[in-house]
Amino acid sequence: MKNTLDDNKPIFLQIKEQIEDSIINGEFNPEDKVPSTNEFASFYKINPATAGKGINELVAEGILYKRRGVGMFVTEEARDILIEGRRKLFYEKFMLPLKKEAEKLGMNRDDLIQMMKRDDNHED
Questions:
Q1: Distance between CA atoms of residues 54 and 57, nearest Å
Q2: Within 13 Å, how many C-alpha atoms sit on residue 94's CB side?
Q3: 64 forms bridges with which residues in the sheet?
Q4: Fewer CB within a 10 Å sphere, N or C end of the chain?
Q5: What is the dihedral of CA 13, 64, 75, 27, to 10 degrees?
Q6: CATH at 19
Q7: Is residue 17 domain-resident?
Q8: Which residues lie across from 33 on neighbouring strands?
Q9: What backbone torsions phi and psi does residue 93 show, to the nearest 5 degrees?
Q10: What one-character DSSP code corresponds to residue 81?
Q11: pTM exceeds 0.70 for this model
């Protein structure tokens, strides 16, 4: 768990994103138990309902499932679901604006590919 929370984003979303990142990065694997709402609440000194809201969204999305009396666990397909969602978001948030700007500048697909292949330390 991260030591601090960002005041600029709802806490439940930050908890949700922490769990998502941990699944994508392999810190949580299928069938691993994730921290409970009470553990998040105690660690961040927040209301358990706030942590629960983020966890419940992950359950609704098929990322986590509940074992009654035991806790919340990562589903088998969690990582694939998350990666697919993040790729879609990446396309919408970054690629579409990139393509639009490239069109304004008269750049084509090959120009963009060449730019992506360039060395990060090289400026043109």
A1: 5
A2: 6
A3: 74
A4: C
A5: 50
A6: 1.10.10.10
A7: yes
A8: 73
A9: -85, -35
A10: H
A11: yes
Q: Which structure tokens are listed for 104?
A: 């304004």
Phi, psi at residue 72, to the nearest 5°? Answer: -105, 140
Question: Is 33 in a helix, a strand, or coil?
Answer: strand
**β partners of residue 74:** 64
Task: Give a yes or no: residue 120 inside a domain.
Answer: no
Sequential pLDDT tens for the chain (124 residues): 777 788 889 999 999 999 999 999 999 999 999 999 999 999 999 999 999 999 999 999 999 999 999 999 999 999 999 999 999 999 999 999 999 999 999 999 999 999 989 876 655 5
What is the number of alpha carbons within 13 Å of residue 108 lying toward its C-beta? 1
User: In the chain, how many domains are there?
Assistant: 1
Please report the sign of the dihedral spanned by the C-alpha atoms of residue 17, residue 56, residue 61, residue 95: negative
One-letter amino acid identity for 88? Answer: K
